[in-house]
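My current task is to audit a protein record that another person submitted. I need someone to confirm that the token line plausibly describes how this chain folds. Take the sequence as given and treat only the tokens as open to question. This is what I was given:
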Amino acid sequence: MKSAFDQSYSLTMKRQSNSVLIVMNLQPEQDTEHARHLDTLASDGIDIFLLARGNLRGAVIHGTHMLNAMRRNHQLGIMESLILGHGYLATALVGSQLKEHGRVILSIDCSGPVQGMNVEATARGEVRGYLKNSTILIEEELESFDTGPFIGVGILSLTRHLERQKQPFTGQVLVEYGSIARDLANYYVQSEQTPTAFNLSVQFDAAGRISGAGGLFVQAIPGAHDEEKERAQELVEELPSLGRLFADRHTGADVVHRQFAALEPEIVGTREASFFCACSKERFARFIAGMSDQELDDLEANGPFPVTTVCHNCNSTYEFTKAEVHELAARHRKP
């Protein structure tokens, strides 16, 4: 039986040359019991596969660690984690089809309480993003985990920045279902005329913690036979809860080989998947130094200090003392 949390259809360091740039404030897991559970799971990652002798392509993501990190940094409740988590999983799956330096942005503007989201994934599996309203007021006990009432209707945009392409490509469709899996599948049919099925799943334990998370998509390649496409759609819809499978220590390759055995699956590649943002105090310092003279004068005079900056993509905060602001202002005014 499918989990109520499923949707189906469709402190970090980065090395630059010989130096190390501190990027993103990654919040640690404070719950020792949950940390022990996460330590028993396979690493996050994306398995890319072919079906039906190459007539269908797809990818499966294990994203349990990624979504736990997302939730900690953004300080999200259960429903907020479910909705943004679906966005992270889906965008990572789309990004897995890009070449090395490509990236994709999923943007939703909607009428529901979340108001929308913006999620970006690179071809390397680095994912970041946010809800436009990260605190949903729930006045009555939920009867289900249907995301429709919280998303509502609106516009879904998918923007690809492709390697060696000067201009990005953006497509849009109406948000009709309030389900990222169904609305993204509809995007591919309406905007790109490509039959595509998605399955997105986040599993919570009895304490409301994310115990497993994963997603999968299958896409028809031109020339695929109707019976192959229909069988693949059926198999995606019949998938057990991916979140539960990953919570029970299964791997993405296990899922592909067991669920799609009738379509002769072949794993053709793997990629990492992680919650990662390239923001840094240095980047925000450059932003402050680039402010106008009037804005800098006001900031130096009135603060408040320390000046706190927040990255909306990962919710990292960076503080600047009065002395640091003065130094940045002096740098700005230097002829």
